[in-house]
Design goal:
This protein has about 625 residues and is of the alpha/beta class. Helix content is about 30%, strand content about 25%. The strands form eight sheets. The protein has a seven-stranded mixed β-sheet with strand order 5-4-17-16-18-19-20, sandwiched between helices. A seven-stranded mixed β-sheet has the order 12-11-8-6-7-14-15, sandwiched between helices. The structure holds adenosine-5'-monophosphate-propyl ester. Adenosine-5'-monophosphate-propyl ester binds next to α12, β20, β23 and β24.
Length: about 625
């Protein structure tokens, strides 16, 4: 078969997959779900336990600040842990965790619930109140999950800052959340090396002085780990004290009470604290997980993301626990000590469903198929992809080599703001490599022009969501105006949500995501704002101005290129270039390291002074920069 024929090939699920799938007829169920949206979501919500049932499924009286399951009383922990203790699930494995050095921890639902209760008691003893935002900055260890769940249990709001972020990123998020309590670790393991976190946490606490209590997990045993008297406590010491006990009451929360804040990058330098709730988020993550990954009690599920991102929040922690699944979690690098690390763990633990990012797939594909073929992966039934468009070559390798042409790939399109999957196949959906296929139940999604007219099949346009859904973000912390401005202003008249992506729909109604239309970059699936990288560069004493763009990169999707204007007395050099790259790492984290820094004398700007990044990008790629009538010079 030629390559172009290959790209047109449609992959149909096997009879076995179809026989097992919960939903056999997507079209019928989809039609029903959008025609009777509230009835659909009420039915889904009824699968959960509520302390008090809702009075109203959807309150649209204050658009775009929608409310779901209004009047309902719940707590996500009741559905994720408490209710399982009343059934045989209490003895089931909730979490299998493997550290990079090979250490293993396994928790039953009962044990996980006990650890969560103990830490909930510790937090209560530290005076943590319902509604208070607790910042968590940790490597990928079980205590991260326990800390998140303990916050939720007492009605506190967690704000997890990804452990790969550095001082400035952490300090900024602590300050915006006005956190009084920080939970961290001395460090973690990555590629055989100790990564020290407490030092970064200490620096961040100096920059944002709101923290009064810092609790640290001892993971790597670093020497000279500075602990401040009366502020710093060791996790294991607190958990060993009588106050920790063994059980704790779960706080009753309103369906609309905040569960967590998760910061994500936007078009300005300041990250946005996206707010999710107990009620709607429980229903939406449970429902999407159940139908898309067809999760059954016997399954072992591995979402190889970091709990510090939305993928981890929704599909490592909350949805799998609500469904009573067995979760696999791994601390370290996929290729450490050898490129077969993941495949050996799939075999060792008998993983049935693996969910990861295109960057990880491309990274492992580089090492060749023999690393995969050494292992018996017959336990795998379904695969998943998220975070960026998956190129057909990587899709086919994942499908043929990892899934042995047996496991459909669920390419799920969604965002921090959506809480859960929005465009996604089900196991029964015929697949086209590179397409996230069709909208999830209840969602009417379209690709439109500026006026809101639907594009013709195959034409590129802007992706919009035309209806509210239970997992949607409720607002941006401390900035409701920005919430309206960013997501609801562009199609205000129609009341549609602007996702910030461009896409195409083909003749069969399949969605093909192209990429961001704003100054947000997806680098290895991580979301970064051009403005964040630019402000990190400008904070260096040698720099007056900077512009950051993403250029296509085979492995990472995009690579960061930064254009820098130096102060007059400074001269460009290789050393300075290296210093600036390191400066960005120190401020934001290794994921933001520019691949290239180019020293320039001027930057293309509009007459109102806005940097035209699109012109820089076109120039760097040797393309036509398009309309430049607003260019100043
Ligand atoms: O551009 C889309 C891309 O990731 C963005 C959302 O990023 P974030 O909030 O970090 O959430 C990532 C994990 C849910 C989207 O606007 N994106 C996400 N999934 C896909 C994708 N692009 C193409 N295909 C996907 N499956």
């Amino acid at each position: 078969m030629s390559d172009s024929e290959n790209l047109k090939k449609i992959y149909h699920p096997s009879e076995e997959v179809v026989a097992r799938a919960r939903v056999k007829d997507y079209d019928a169920m989809y039609k029903e779900s959008v025609e009777n949206r509230e009835a659909f979501w009420a039915r889904e919500a009824e699968e959960l336990e509520w302390y008090k049932k809702w009075d109203k499924v959807l309150d649209e009286s204050n658009k775009p600040f929608y409310k779901w399951f209004v009047g309902g009383k719940t707590n996500i922990i009741h559905n994720a842990l408490d209710r399982h203790l009343k059934t045989a699930t209490r003895n089931k494995i909730a979490l299998i965790w493997e550290g990079e050095p090979g250490d293993i921890k396994v928790y039953s639902y009962h044990a996980l619930s006990r650890e969560v209760s103990k830490f909930a008691n510790v937090l209560r003893a530290m005076g943590v109140q319902k509604g208070e935002i607790v910042t968590i900055y940790m490597p990928q260890i079980p205590e991260l999950i326990i800390a998140m769940l303990a916050c939720a249990k007492i009605g506190a709001v967690h704000s997890v800052v990804y452990g790969g972020f550095s001082v400035e990123a952490l300090a900024e998020r602590i300050e915006d959340a006005n956190s009084r309590v920080l939970i961290t670790a001395d460090g973690g393991w990555r590629r055989g090396k100790k990564v020290v976190l407490k030092k970064i946490a200490n620096e961040a606490m100096k920059r944002s002085p709101t923290i009064e209590v810092c609790i640290t997990v001892k993971r790597i045993d670093v020497e000279d780990c500075y602990m401040e008297t009366d502020r710093d406590f060791w996790w294991h010491e607190l958990m060993g004290m009588p106050i920790a006990g063994t059980s704790a009451d779960t706080e009753v929360t309103d369906a609309e009470d905040p569960l967590f804040i998760l910061y994500t990058s936007g078009t300005t330098g300041k990250p946005k604290g996206v707010v999710h709730t107990h009620g709607g988020y429980s229903v939406y993550t449970m429902s999407t997980f159940k139908y898309v990954f067809d999760i059954k009690p016997e399954d072992r599920w591995w979402c190889a993301a970091d709990p510090g991102w939305i993928t981890g929040h929704s599909y490592i922690v909350y949805a799998p626990l609500i469904m009573g699944a067995t979760i696999m979690s791994y601390e370290g690098a996929p290729n450490h000590p050898y490129p077969n690390r993941w495949w050996s763990m799939v075999e060792k633990y008998g993983i049935n469903i693996l969910y990861t990012s295109p960057t990880a797939i491309r990274g492992l594909m580089r090492f060749g198929s023999s690393w995969v073929e050494k292992h018996n992966l017959s336990s795998l039934r379904l695969l998943g992809s998220v975070g960026e468009p998956i190129n057909p070559e990587a899709w086919r390798w994942y499908y043929e080599v990892v899934g042995q042409s047996r496991c459909p790939i669920m390419d799920t399109w969604w965002q921090t703001e959506t809480g859960g999957f929005m465009i996604t196949p089900l196991p029964v959906t015929p697949l086209k490599p590179g397409s996230a296929t069709k909208p999830f139940f209840g969602n009417e999604i379209a690709v439109v022009d500026e006026a809101g007219n639907e594009m013709k099949p195959g034409e590129e346009g802007t992706l919009v969501i035309r209806n509210p859904w239970p997992g949607m973000a409720r607002t941006i912390l401390n900035d409701p105006d920005r919430y309206i401005e960013k997501y609801w202003k562009a199609y205000e008249k129609q009341g549609w949500y602007l996702a910030g992506d461009s896409a195409r729909v083909d003749e069969d109604g399949y969605f093909w995501i192209i990429g961001r239309i704003d100054d947000v970059l997806k680098v290895s699936g991580y979301r970064l704002g051009s403005a964040e990288i630019e402000s990190a560069l400008v904070s260096h004493p040698a720099v007056t101005e900077a512009a950051a763009i993403g250029l296509p990169d085979e492995l990472r999707g995009n690579a960061i290129h930064a254009f820098v204007i130096l102060k007059q007395k400074e001269t460009p050099s290789k050393e300075l270039k290296e210093e600036l790259m390191q400066h960005v790492v120190d401020e934001i984290g290794p994921i933001a390291r520019p691949q290239e820094i180019i020293f320039v004398d001027s930057l293309p700007k509009t007459r109102s002074g806005k940097i035209m990044r699109r012109v820089l990008k076109a120039q760097a790629m040797g393309q036509d920069p398009g309309d430049i009538t607003t260019l100043e010079d």
